[in-house]
Amino acid sequence: MLSIVVLISGGGSNLRALLEASQDAEFPARVVAVGADRDADGLAHAEEFGIPSFTVPFSSFDDREQWGDELLAQIRQWEPDLVVLSGFMRLVPPRVVEAFSPNLINTHPAYLPEFPGAHGVRDALAAGATQTGASLIVVDDGVDAGPIISQERVPILPGDTEAALHERIKPVERRLLIDAVLDIANGHIDLEELARA
Ligand code: GRF
User: Fold this and answer.
1) How far apart are CA 31 and CA 98, in angstroms?
2) What single-letter DSSP state applies at residue 153?
3) How many Å is the Cα radius of gyration of the chain?
């Protein structure tokens, strides 16, 4: 059974999809803990599903280093096979990347390498693109630049707002995440090999 720690900052809809998938006895992965960098709304999903959670608020630490040390310590105590960033809106500290990559993955609401960064949906609209997408990547020390695990195109429709487009991208992100977790758990995706390629 693949054990997963999920890190969130927001509503946690991708987290919820993973928690729902894990309800199926046949699903070969389980979320063992949920972590957040703030009092994220998505922590309610963890509570509802009886999954332990931890919060490491950035604002409670004197500097990024100390925050990173505590985040790493919190994740480590769960000894996860995989760490999933799902709407975690901070750059992951280098020590966390070192400790877990390539078993550290991130969902992104754009077709990488197009539109990396915190505003992938907004940037695609601002660029006047006719299509964008969703991507799942291995987190390395770059910004949304790690090896691509899977991705899918999403069309941009006339009159799309950032919110409307993001709501159409999210179900695709969820599907990519669930499918990849399944494939990682059953050995069809080898993250070590992907990271070496
Ligand atoms: C997702 O689109 C994720 O890729 C992005 O933020 C969103 C988080 O959504 N970085 P949620 O918190 O899972 O609802």
Assistant:
1) 21
2) E
3) 16
For the stretch 70-81, pLDDT in tens is 999 999 999 999
Interval 109-161: pLDDT, tens? 999 999 999 999 999 999 999 999 999 999 999 999 999 999 999 999 999 99
Phi and psi angles of residue 81, each rounded to the nearest 5 degrees, phi first: -80, -30
Secondary structure class of 107 (helix, strand, coil): strand
DSSP string over 33-50: EEEESS--TTHHHHHHTT
| Percent of the chain residues past pLDDT 70, beyond the cut | 100
**Distance in Å, CA 85 to ligand 1 centroid:** 9
Nearest CA owner, ligand 1 atom 8: 87
Task: Tell which one of 8, 91, 137, 173 to mutate to probe ligand 1, the residue whose CB is within 8 A of the most ligand atoms.
Answer: 173
Q: Which of 45, 108, 166, 188 is catalytic?
A: 108
- Is 45 assigned a catalytic role? no
Decide whether any atom of ligand 1 lies within 6 Å of the 14 Cβ: yes
In whole angstroms, give the CA distance from residue 3 to residue 52.
13
The pLDDT tens digits of the residues spanning 1-24 come to: 999 999 999 999 999 999 999 999
CB 74 within 8 A of CB 138: no
Number of neighbours of residue 181 by Cβ within 10 angstroms: 25
Question: Ligand 1 within 6 A of 176 CB?
Answer: no
Residue 75 three-state SS: helix
